[in-house]
Write a structure and sequence with these properties.
With 183 residues, the chain is of the alpha+beta class. 20% of the residues lie in helices and 33% in strands. It contains four helices and eleven strands, in the order H-H-E-E-E-E-H-E-E-H-E-E-E-E-E. The strands form two sheets. Strands 1, 2, 3, 4, 5, 6, 7, 8 and 9 form a nine-stranded antiparallel beta sheet that branches. Strands 10-11 form a two-stranded antiparallel ribbon. A hairpin with a 5-residue loop joins strand 10 and strand 11. Helix 1 packs across helix 2. The longest helix has 11 residues. It is globular, with a radius of gyration of 17 Å.
């Protein structure tokens, strides 16, 4: 499980593109999917915090917090921009941050309300995906208009894909920077 910082060091352009989409409205904004006790999905809007230290989220006392405490698997999806259908997706495991100094520093930087019953979680990155639509891929040979450019990063140290419960679309690699979803 890679930290956001490790992922960003390995794929800085991809990490920057994901960060831009998650922070396009100022503070972070995305949809967090967690795993309910019965195994089903649960999705809620959240405000992720991305710093040089990692990817974090302050989670109030709620069903999604109990999901993360019980089963740390998560998926985080960006809110769609007004001008395109570009999207960002990150998935991995969430773990509580217990170092009081780190919690205080991140809470101050994110202006987290101190009177609220929240728990800070750090999200590791097993898979990251950035999808750009037409305007970003014009002029690339072999791509017809309307086909998205999809960039996927898989943690090279994560368990094998067969053991990973995260779904990643099948892709065919066109180059190091551009992938197209299979038809």
């Amino acid at each position: 499980m890679a930290s956001w910082s490790e992922f960003a060091a390995d794929e800085p352009r991809l990490a920057d593109g994901i960060r831009v989409l998650l922070q396009q409205y100022g503070p972070g904004f995305g949809y967090l999917a967690t795993v309910r006790a019965d195994g089903g999905p649960r999705v809620h809007p959240v405000s992720p915090v991305i710093t040089d230290e990692g990817l974090f989220c302050f989670i109030i006392d709620s069903p999604k917090r109990r999901d993360l405490e019980r089963d740390g698997r998560y998926a985080l999806h960006s809110f769609p921009p007004e001008e395109s259908d570009d999207e960002a997706y990150v998935a991995g495991r969430a773990r509580p941050v217990t170092d009081p100094a780190r919690v205080a520093r991140l809470a101050q930087g994110a202006r987290a309300e101190p009177q609220v019953d929240w728990q800070l979680f750090e999200f590791t990155v097993d898979v990251a995906m950035l999808t750009r639509r037409e305007q970003h891929i014009a002029g690339i040979p072999g791509l017809s208009p309307g086909r998205p450019a999809v960039r996927v990063w898989l943690d090279p140290h994560a368990p094998s894909a067969a053991a990973t419960p995260l779904a990643v679309p099948q892709t065919r690699r066109l180059s190091r920077d551009v992938q197209c979803t299979a038809a």
